């Protein structure tokens, strides 16, 4: 009698993935691009790895602070006021240096338009 061929089971393969979930990370290329823009000189690989670790720790702390501000206010969504409060506590935003001035000084025009609403009337811009 002829038997039908049965597929052999693959050993060690179950329905679940064997990988551990990883934390999201900022792309190395982005960190390198931003850092090299401000440094303007060659950087060793070891120095760049330290910069990468520091930026990762900075953004983790930044996100946990924003989460704390938001939960303290009884909300589930981070708002602009939370970011401004964090920047004020870090000393980036002061009475002499408001957030709008920082945005105009450091961000490209397309981001400025998104963050600072400007009413346009005829040929005049009214902030």
Structure description:
The protein has 127 residues and is mainly α. A two-stranded antiparallel sheet has the order 1-2. The chain has two domains: 25-77, Histone, subunit A; 79-117, Histone, subunit A (Orthogonal Bundle). The protein has five helices and two strands; from the N terminus they run αααααββ. Helix 2 (45-72) packs across helix 3. The protein starts with 27 loop residues before the first helix and ends with a strand.
Tell me briefly what this model is:
By secondary structure, this protein is mainly alpha-helical. It is built from 5 helices and 2 strands; from the N terminus they run H-H-H-H-H-E-E.
Task: Provide the descriptors you would attach to this structure in a database record.
127 residues, mainly alpha, Histone, subunit A, 2 domains, elongated, CENP-T
CATH class category label of the largest domain: Mainly Alpha
Report helical residue fraction: 40-55%
Tally of separate helices: 5
How would a crystallographer describe the biggest sheet? 2 strands, antiparallel
What best-fitting shape do the alpha-carbon axes yield? elongated
- The helix/strand class is mainly alpha
CATH superfamily of the largest domain: Histone, subunit A
Radius of gyration: 25 Å
User: Main sheet: which strands, in order across?
Assistant: 1-2
Q: What proportion strand?
A: under 5%
What is the CATH topology classification name of the largest domain?
Answer: Histone, subunit A
What are the low-pLDDT stretches, counting only 5+ consecutive residues below 50?
A: none
Tell me how many strands there are.
Answer: 2
